[in-house]
Amino acid sequence: MAYSDKVLDHYNNPRNVGALDKKSENVGTGVVGAPECGDVMKLQIEVDGDRIVDAKFKTFGCGSAIASSSLATEWVKGKTLDEALSISNTEIVQELSLPPVKIHCSVLAEDAIKAAVNDFKAKRATTAQEQSAK
Amino acid sequence: MQLPIYMDYQATTPVDPRVLEAMLPFFTQAYGNAASRNHAFGWKAEEAVDAAREACASIIGASSKEIVFTSGSTEAINLAMKGVAEMYGHKGKHVITSLAEHKAVLDTAKHLEKQGFEVTYLKPDKNGRTTAADVAAALREDTILVSIMWANNEVGTVNDVRGIGELCHEKGVLFFTDATQAVGKIPVDVAADHVDLLCFSGHKIYGPKGVGALYVRRRNPRVRLVAQMDGGGHERGMRSGTLNVPGIAGLGEACRLAQAELETEAARAIALRERLQQKIEAELDFVHLNGDAEHRLPGCLNLSFNFVEGESLLMGVKDLAVSSGSACTSASLEPSHVLRSMDVGDDLAHSSIRFGLGRFTTEEEVDFAARQVIDTVKRLREMSPLYEMVVEEGIDLSTVNWQGGH
């Protein structure tokens, strides 16, 4: 299968590989996919106020899955939570020129962003509750 | 060393220059039809076909009258299975084969099911092996054919052919074996191994593509087939069609060379295979051998690498022409039916690579391949959430509730 130059670039030089401290209050973690399906993405965001200041990923999956998640971390950095939530998989498909059989990779990356944001929001809600209980 | 490196010898092999040399005269000089009985062109072609038939018989311990030339193993499989089913269908309607067979056998078995036959698909053990005991348990009064491959093309496991052959002869059931991966690689003897029908192909043994042979036993028992191709009655009526003389000459020469060099070549392939496996295992943990450690083909090494996905692995080993057990690349996400029949988990099946080593593989190539595999797996594991979960966090992946799998 021929990969687009952008997919190859992300595969060979993935951006933001790594992990953030998932116990930190400022970090949201999203893990989507399943090993049997050949794709697992973990995407993490570090949030300051309402803005994503850092993002890291780790992905088990094909080159397109790695590229989609690498691109997702690039895109969410500097965005507000709501802006990040509005990133859609079709933008990822376009940017990476993914073929139809690889669209699920972009969907997974979108899901990973949403899961990370939601995880962060849930954390913040819990912290707020605890604080108001005090 | 030239890149990319060819390590897919179970898929096909280059034509040995000595084989090509033997074929060339039959294209432009001795181009007669082997069936032309009344002139020198025909005689010359027939002579070449006869010599090739001898070589094909010799490498499997048969007599030359028992060889039928075909276009390759797929055709031979169709002829053997359908030919037996049609000839002996009045005696019984039951056929036994295995889930780990090549698609050519499985699809032909499906065809027989549509014709009213009942097929038992044996499940191999976790190493991909089928034994006489497995076959014995499935035999019935109305079983007319057992079709079990000699050696598996994906994992290289060698089946208990002699045991299965003995059992079949004892029970009076015909035994066909797809020996495409075995002939020329390991000793094959249709007499000692009690085989009734056997096929192999030129292009797996450094011969040309588009030519193969079917062995059909002539005595104890005499096997009869219903031809699947109607026409001029070539090959004793079993396979009509003008003989592919250059191809057959090439197949014959390939057999002659393979037989003469079998022992040294097998020893060399085993040494290279072990070198590759040892180098990889010395630097990587969580590596699984797919297939049988003891009963296996010399030049086949099928490994799975936990926590990395097959397609990204293949992308990383871009200088190696290898094959993956995952059909991800063909867009279906279906892992190989062979690995599945062995109960290899889908995650491991997705990360399997088959290294096929052969006559022209060098130590230098093996070392380069090992290095590229090791570097790629390490790099991919560094970005694998699964590796992190298991190795760093000690999580049992089977207990994880995965979200949103596709």
From TrEMBL, chain A:
Pfam families membership: NifU_N (PF01592)
Signal peptide: none
Domain NIF system FeS cluster assembly NifU N-terminal stretches: 2-125
Keywords: Iron, Metal-binding
Keyword NAD among record annotations: no
InterPro entries according to UniProt: ISCU, NIF_FeS_clus_asmbl_NifU_N
SUPFAM superfamilies xrefs: SufE/NifU (SSF82649)
Any single GO BP term: iron-sulfur cluster assembly
GO molecular function terms noted in the UniProt entry: iron ion binding; iron-sulfur cluster binding
Keyword Cell inner membrane: no
Described function: A scaffold on which IscS assembles Fe-S clusters. It is likely that Fe-S cluster coordination is flexible as the role of this complex is to build and then hand off Fe-S clusters.
NCBIfam families assigned: iscU
UniProt name for this protein: Iron-sulfur cluster assembly scaffold protein IscU
Organism name: Engelhardtia mirabilis
Gene assigned in the entry: nifU_2
Automatic annotation (TrEMBL), chain B:
Enzyme class, UniProt record, top EC level: transferase
Molecular-function GO terms, alphabetical: 2 iron, 2 sulfur cluster binding; cysteine desulfurase activity; metal ion binding; pyridoxal phosphate binding
Known pathway: Cofactor biosynthesis; iron-sulfur cluster biosynthesis
GO cellular component, one term: L-cysteine desulfurase complex
Residues binding [2Fe-2S] cluster, per UniProt: 328
Domain Aminotransferase class V per the UniProt entry, residue ranges: 5-367
InterPro entries: Aminotrans_V_dom, Aminotrans_V_PyrdxlP_BS, Cys_deSase_IscS, Cysteine_dSase, PyrdxlP-dep_Trfase, PyrdxlP-dep_Trfase_major, PyrdxlP-dep_Trfase_small
Compartment(s) of residence: Cytoplasm
Cofactor: pyridoxal 5'-phosphate
Binding site for pyridoxal 5'-phosphate: 153, 181, 201-203, 242
Modified residues (N6-(pyridoxal phosphate)lysine): 204
Pfam families: Aminotran_5
UniProt catalytic activity: (sulfur carrier)-H + L-cysteine = (sulfur carrier)-SH + L-alanine
GO BP of this protein: [2Fe-2S] cluster assembly
Active site residues per record: 328
Keywords: 2Fe-2S, Cytoplasm, Iron, Iron-sulfur, Metal-binding, Pyridoxal phosphate, Transferase
Gene3D superfamilies: Aspartate Aminotransferase, domain 1 (3.90.1150.10), Type I PLP-dependent aspartate aminotransferase-like (Major domain) (3.40.640.10)
EC number(s) on file: 2.8.1.7
Protein family membership: Belongs to the class-V pyridoxal-phosphate-dependent aminotransferase family. NifS/IscS subfamily.
HAMAP family membership: Cys_desulf_IscS
Cited function: Master enzyme that delivers sulfur to a number of partners involved in Fe-S cluster assembly, tRNA modification or cofactor biosynthesis. Catalyzes the removal of elemental sulfur atoms from cysteine to produce alanine. Functions as a sulfur delivery protein for Fe-S cluster synthesis onto IscU, an Fe-S scaffold assembly protein, as well as other S acceptor proteins.
Oligomer and partners: Homodimer. Forms a heterotetramer with IscU, interacts with other sulfur acceptors.
Protein name (Swiss-Prot/TrEMBL): Cysteine desulfurase IscS
Gene behind the chain: iscS_1
